[in-house]
Amino acid sequence: MVSATEIWKSTSEKLAAAQEANAEALSAAADLVLGVIRSDALVFTAGAGHSLAAVAETFYRAGGLACVYPLYHPELLPLHGAQHSTKTERRSGLAEEVLAERAPGPGDVLVVFSTSGVNPYPVELAAGARRRGAAVIAVTSRECVAAAPRRSATTLVEEGTVVLDSLVIPGDASHPADGPRTAPLSTVVNAFLWNLILAEVYDRGTAEGLDVPLWRSSNVEGGDEANTALLAKYLPRVPALR
What pLDDT is attached to residue 7? Predict the structure, then answer.
């Protein structure tokens, strides 16, 4: 029987490897986010299927950035229809429908989470954002992209201004090591990479005197008051904060 210590060691090693492999890209991603804060623009975040867990991690979260606009379509969430969500992610044209409602532009940044990085929705979303002048941070797996069947003219790796490689292997599973079948890692690694960006943005931003807009937990003293000020600032631009 596998022990918690074994799983912890394996996962921590993979997280450390992802941090080391992405050192330069993480700094470049932090540069883009800091640019958003300096210009009072927005960080848009997007994903499909289980990559929406990473989008939820970026939005209205204690300790998270307040200047985040989540791009979302309910048909992309497995809870609203598992098989249908897969078909929806593969439907060309949906990204433009979502961007028609609200799209990032010059000064904004789009963060797209997609481990496979080949389906039309994330790829076309990134391409559409770049056409509109926004930078794109692609959080994906180069190995998964290389192994997956092509479903778009390009891949998320090709469309990213900055590419963060989760190092997740094709199939996402991590256990057992000699033939992975379970214990998928993409959600854990995506959240870790995002937190590394947040930490660098905070450290560098505060060092240069920037007011980094961060949500507080509503369950700590002063949290509601701090969040009220942020809601007053961002609700007019981020309707999902209602």
Answer: 87
